[in-house]
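Need a sequence for this fold. Nothing fancy.
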């Protein structure tokens, strides 16, 4: 009897132990299943963002994107960024290899280069549920529209502006220039102390010469289709004028120009995009110098100003993005969100977005130098033309400068340099 009881207790114990083991196995299995489910739920959508700019832009953009990620925990944003030099070439490689970022800061000219038919970037009209397009006028959206497709939205509008060290002008008894002759008169005075009237980079130099050309000949250097309209004789006269600007201390040789010479007073003024006001106006003013803004020079009697307007930079979405909705959410944040607008301020120029303007108006937008320059732009808008993308063609500008340098350094005649420029530009534009 005693053995039977022991046997029964042993059997019961075995069953209890088996039950406990089964329960533990089921519990472990359920936890594994839950962990897998949680892992799936926590998996983030990866989108890539690219832009160019200076260190300040990199810093506030990354800070802004970190905030976007905190508000959208299911989205992870990876960065591609750098300074402008070389960025355009890298973008070309990315575009041709279909490895571009999902959301891209682009130059206005890239619409022509990568999306002539409107297929090079995503049609933002299809993402209207995620992007507040009502913040942009039809005219503003038209800047980014190709073949009926909204490829990009402008961040800000831009034109060229001249800033001068007013203290330096006062020291030499000079007034702000209004004509090209005024610039040469200033060069005679400043040149005695080996100073220059203007300093600028290669692209700005070319835009400056385009303006002079169009004022003098009353025609576009590039027509609306981008076709090169200059003759060899006109180019000969243009590069002779360019050389005279350098020789007579109107323009600092491009390869010798750097911002420090402007900041130190070796160069009286500069020509830059309004979006670079913080670099060439605010930065100089912060050192205690009085800075004056000046209208662009005009030839007396000119019927065409030769000066252009364009979107400063634009945001676009890759046509090949695998996550268009998430990309659109990020693009909308970059353009319209109060947090991002507050971080960016007017670093890229005065924003186009109505929502962004409303935010900045409360922070004293009208007192900024960028805003004042934009008001000038609006005042003279009838004299400005929408830029032809070929005016900013890097290969074309490089060819122009290198061939003009051959003449400037007395290696070839102006006729030979003009001939090389003419043929080279046509080759760059595939017009031969």
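Here you go.
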């Amino acid at each position: 009897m005693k053995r039977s009881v022991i046997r029964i207790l042993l059997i019961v114990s075995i069953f209890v132990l088996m039950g406990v083991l089964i329960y533990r196995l089921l519990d472990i299995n359920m936890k594994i299943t839950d962990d897998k489910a949680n892992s799936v739920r926590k998996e983030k959508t990866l989108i890539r963002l690219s832009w160019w700019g200076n260190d300040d832009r990199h810093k506030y953009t990354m800070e802004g994107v970190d905030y976007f990620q905190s508000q959208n925990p299911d989205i992870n944003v990876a960065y591609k960024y750098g300074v402008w030099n070389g960025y355009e070439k890298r973008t070309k490689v990315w575009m041709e290899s279909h490895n571009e970022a999902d959301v891209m800061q682009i130059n206005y000219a890239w619409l022509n280069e990568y999306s002539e038919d409107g297929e090079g970037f995503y049609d933002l009209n299809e993402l209207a549920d995620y992007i507040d397009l009502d913040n942009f006028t039809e005219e503003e959206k038209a800047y980014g529209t190709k073949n009926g497709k909204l490829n990009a939205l402008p961040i800000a509008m831009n034109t060229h502006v001249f800033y001068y060290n007013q203290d330096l002008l006062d020291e030499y008894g000079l007034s702000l220039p209004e004509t090209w002759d005024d610039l040469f008169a200033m060069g005679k005075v400043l040149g005695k102390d080996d100073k220059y009237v203007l300093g600028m980079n290669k692209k700005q130099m070319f835009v400056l010469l385009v303006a002079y050309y169009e004022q003098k000949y009353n025609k576009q250097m590039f027509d609306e289709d981008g076709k090169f309209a200059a003759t060899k004789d006109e180019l000969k006269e243009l590069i002779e004028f360019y050389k005279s600007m350098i020789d007579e201390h109107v323009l600092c040789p491009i390869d010798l120009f750097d911002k420090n010479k402007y900041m130190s007073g070796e160069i009286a003024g500069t020509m830059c995009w309004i979006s670079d006001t913080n670099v060439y106006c605010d930065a100089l003013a912060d050192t205690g110098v009085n800075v004056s803004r000046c209208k662009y020079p005009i030839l007396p009697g000119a019927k065409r100003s030769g000066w252009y307007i364009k979107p400063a930079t634009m945001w676009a979405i890759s046509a090949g993005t695998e996550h268009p909705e998430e990309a659109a959410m990020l693009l909308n944040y970059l353009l319209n969100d109060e947090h991002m607008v507050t971080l960016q301020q007017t670093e890229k120029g005065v924003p186009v977005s109505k929502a962004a303007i409303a935010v900045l108006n409360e922070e004293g937008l009208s007192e900024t130098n960028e805003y004042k320059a934009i008001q000038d732009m609006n005042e003279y808008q009838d004299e400005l033309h929408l830029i032809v993308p070929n005016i900013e063609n890097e290969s074309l500008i490089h060819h122009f400068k290198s061939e003009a340098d051959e003449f400037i350094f007395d290696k070839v005649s102006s006729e030979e340099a003009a001939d090389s420029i003419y043929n080279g530009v046509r080759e760059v534009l595939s017009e031969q």
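For context: Residues 25-41 have pLDDT under 50 and may be disordered.
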